[in-house]
Write a structure and sequence with these properties.
This protein has one domain. It contains 5 helices and no strands. The chain has helices spanning about 15-50, 50-85, 95, 105-145, 155-170. Helix 1 (about 15-50) runs antiparallel to helix 2 and helix 1 runs parallel beside helix 4 (about 105-145). The longest helix has about 45 residues, at about 105-145.
């Protein structure tokens, strides 16, 4: 982890400075979620426009943001551990476990949780869209290559009909 993300639990670090660092971390994390949301929207637009480069750029951007979010989560847990004594403290329960509840931490935590809900919904929509686009692309390629529908290859009646047709063709 890089030095700017480290927060010391030494005597020089006051609860107020730790609380301010947590607020800053929560705001940064919320900003990353906003970036992820915008990236997902751009990626979906690229799929709709059949812009392969845009889709690939979106994939790279999502990966970069997710990596950075993971680092932000580590930072948040560390700060929460310094403030509460437990890194496992849930954001929604944060104000109830602090010695002196901090209104700003509570507000930013609520905003972060809401941003996470929005991104989770957008992510599911994007996954569904990308799965559909991949399936459509596969079907298109099979059609262009003259391949039969893969589903029909596994139906027993189709297989039997195909066998009968082969026998007829051989006998004729």
């Amino acid at each position: 982890m890089s030095a700017p993300h480290m927060v010391s639990g030494s005597s020089g670090s006051t609860p107020e400075s730790r609380a301010a660092a947590l607020v800053s971390a929560l705001k940064s994390e919320r900003s990353l979620l906003t970036d992820l949301h915008q990236t997902l929207l751009r990626q979906r637009a690229a799929v709709a426009e059949e812009d392969i480069d845009g889709v690939e750029t979106g994939v790279r951007d999502v990966q970069r943001i997710l990596l950075t979010l993971n680092e932000a989560l580590t930072r948040r847990r560390s700060l929460i551990g310094l403030l509460t004594g437990s890194e496992a403290t849930d954001l929604s329960a944060l104000s109830s476990v602090l010695d002196a509840p901090d209104r700003e931490i509570e507000e930013v935590a609520v905003q972060l949780l809401e941003a996470a809900r929005v991104v989770a919904a957008e992510l599911e929509t994007t996954r569904t869209l990308l799965r559909g686009a991949i399936a459509t692309g596969d079907h298109y390629l099979k059609t262009m290559a003259g391949a039969e529908d893969a589903e029909s290859l596994y139906r027993p009646e189709t297989h039997q009909q195909r066998q009968k047709a082969l026998l007829v063709d051989r006998q004729v």
